[in-house]
Amino acid sequence: MNRELRKTVIAGNWKMNLTPSGARKLINELKPLIDGVTGCDIVVCVPFTDIEAAREACEGSAVKVGAQNVHFEAKGAFTGEISAEMLKECGAEYVVIGHSERRQYFGETDQVVNLRAKAALAAGITPIICVGELLKEREEGITEEIVSMQTKLCLAGLSCEDVKRVIIAYEPVWAIGTGKTATSDQADEVCGIIRNVIAKLYDGKTAEAVTIQYGGSMKPGNAAELLGKYNVDGGLIGGASLVAGDFAAIVKAAGQ
Ligand code: PGA
Predict the structure, then answer these.
(1) 12 lines ligand 1 (CB under 6 A)
(2) Residue 94 contacts residue 55 (beta carbons within 8 Å)
């Protein structure tokens, strides 16, 4: 990470776990553990139904609340969908977009991810855009091509100012929930590839300002090593974000 150029952000992705009462309990456990940590932004991305409870529980602490998806249209006949404005009013300041589970199980494409990111930005919500290769793609040696293409398509049409407000999470699909973590060199390399793509699309200064997280089995035991890399500006944490002590340890590894 490079704190002088960009923000370090540790975000928990709770996935489909915890009800509002469970959310309050976990945040209340977490708050004293991260009290006084500076140098990184802390976010919990919770199920839609937990957003208000989480925001209330986070009050007075450094922890911010995010969602895990957003519909790209502003309003209308889209049964079951949630708009960016709805998220904003409930207190979500961030939203995970294009997570590999959504790509895998719900057919999300880079084009849809791009529309969602635009909707989030228009509402003043920070999108956390996920990209990453499958195991097969890594084995075939096409990680760079895949991740570069995803980055280009997901950022299509965004202005330089918009891009500086985006967080990108590099999440190799083979490392998510598997216990297999990318090595810190692999994480640094691909986060660097993403930064280069942004430099080519925009300019070097913009690329240096974008927060690029690593996600995939980040835990207390490997966080410091991953976060020590120049191009890794934080983490998107799944499993370990559901255990207050583990999430707090990762926050401390990122903070000062
Ligand atoms: P994991 O999940 O930390 O459980 O591997 C990461 C993610 O899905 O964002």
Answers:
(1) no
(2) no
Which of ligand 1's atoms lies nearest the C-alpha of 237? 3
CA of 242 to the centre of ligand 1 (A): 11
Output the pTM of the full model: 0.98
> Is residue 215 within 8 Å of 235, Cβ to Cβ?
yes
Give the whole-angstrom CA distance, residue 70 versus residue 119: 8
Per-residue CA distances from 178 to 91, 182, 247 (Å):
31, 11, 18
Query: Is 209 buried (19+), middle (13-18) or exposed (0-12) by CB count in 10 A?
Result: middle
Residue whose C-alpha is closest to residue 43's, from 89, 7, 6: 7
The single residue listed with the structure tokens 């009013």 is 89
Best residue for ligand 1 mutational test, from 131, 218, 250 (most atoms within 8 Å of Cβ): 218
The residues pairing with 168 across neighbouring beta strands, listed in sequence order, are: 129, 212
* Cα–Cα distance measured from residue 228 to residue 190, given in angstroms and rounded to the nearest whole number: 15
- Which atom of ligand 1 is nearest the CA belonging to 236? 9
Residue whose entry in the numeric block shows the structure tokens 């707090």: 248
- Indicate the pLDDT class of residue 11, thresholds 50, 70 and 90: very high
What DSSP character marks residue 56?
H
| Strand bridging mode 126-131 / 167-170 | parallel
- The 10s digit of each residue's pLDDT in 154-170 is 999 999 999 999 999 99
